[in-house]
């Protein structure tokens, strides 16, 4: 339980770019002036719920219990999709019920979810629930409101990152995120071979980026625990032309290659 002398932490994640997050922050600070606001990311690829879920999952675990996580990647804004509050591992999440919150919540514990009652949507812009519904909800949670006070308990929509399919000589995986360096993160948590080939190019298996030579492609297990394709001093996204959602085939190479 948060002590009264501590300032509440609210994280923010969205696909809104540079303009709209300030409006969400204003809505929060109008209701919880002392809240500490921390941006996770606002450059999630537009409407890419899975990429947003990955970014939230990678970041949320590094915040203390009691943190409120406000996340909005919401292609269904203004439709019949629900808004939800999720509690897990001492953290609280608020946002749309489209799976965005669930991987992060599951990484911290066993999630419990409540629907945000429609009364909270009255007067809200049908195109900006992040500002008019979820930001006020986050402020209320940071100020001590119970998740159950927003509405009835529900089973939230699930979202899975999936897992790579691995055989003796190949691995089929999916790109789940591309970071600001152009590093390509895939839904694999292991690198099964010493030599890996992607699109005819050898990927150096490395522990750090610096182990590769200049402009050399590599594969490593990133700080998030997933396999990551990178280029030292360059962009794996640009080199291989990859984007979130792409399926890729990694092949086992020979040590002599």
UniProtKB/TrEMBL annotation:
> Sorted alphabetically, which InterPro entries does this protein's record hold?
SAM_HAT_C (IPR046470), SAM_HAT_N (IPR046469), SAM_OH_AdoTrfase (IPR002747), SAM_OH_AdoTrfase_C_sf (IPR023227), SAM_OH_AdoTrfase_N_sf (IPR023228)
Q: Which residues form the S-adenosyl-l-methionine hydroxide adenosyltransferase N-terminal domain?
A: 10-151
Swiss-Prot/TrEMBL keywords: S-adenosyl-L-methionine
Q: Which residues form the S-adenosyl-l-methionine hydroxide adenosyltransferase C-terminal domain?
A: 173-248
State the SUPFAM superfamilies in the record.
Answer: Bacterial fluorinating enzyme, C-terminal domain, Bacterial fluorinating enzyme, N-terminal domain
For this chain, the family text in UniProt reads:
Belongs to the SAM hydrolase / SAM-dependent halogenase family.
Q: Which PANTHER family match?
A: CHLORINASE MJ1651
Q: What protein name applies here?
A: SAM-dependent chlorinase/fluorinase
Which organism is this entry from? Candidatus Methanocrinis alkalitolerans
């Amino acid at each position: 339980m948060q002590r009264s002398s501590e300032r509440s932490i609210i994280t923010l994640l969205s696909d809104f770019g540079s303009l709209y997050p300030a409006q969400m922050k204003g809505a929060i600070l109008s209701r919880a002036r002392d809240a500490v606001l921390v941006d996770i990311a606002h450059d999630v690829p537009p409407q890419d719920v899975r990429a947003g879920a990955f970014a939230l999952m990678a970041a949320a675990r590094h915040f203390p219990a009691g943190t409120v996580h406000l996340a909005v990647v919401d292609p269904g804004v203004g439709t019949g999709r629900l808004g939800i509050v999720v509690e897990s591992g001492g953290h609280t999440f608020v946002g749309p019920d489209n799976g965005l919150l669930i991987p992060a919540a599951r990484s911290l514990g066993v999630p419990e979810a409540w629907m945000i009652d429609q009364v909270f949507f009255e007067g809200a812009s049908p195109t900006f629930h992040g500002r008019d519904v979820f930001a006020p909800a986050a402020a209320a949670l940071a100020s001590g409101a119970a998740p159950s006070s927003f509405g009835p308990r529900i089973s939230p929509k699930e979202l899975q990152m999936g897992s790579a399919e691995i055989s003796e000589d190949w691995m089929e995986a999916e790109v789940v995120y591309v970071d600001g360096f152009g590093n390509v993160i895939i839904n694999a948590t292991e690198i099964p071979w010493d030599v890996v080939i992607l699109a005819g190019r050898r990927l150096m298996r490395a522990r750090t980026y610096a182990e590769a030579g200049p402009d050399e492609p590599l594969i490593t297990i990133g700080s998030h625990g997933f396999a990551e394709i990178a280029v030292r001093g360059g962009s794996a996204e640009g080199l291989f032309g990859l984007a979130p959602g792409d399926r890729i085939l990694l092949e086992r190479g020979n040590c002599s290659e």
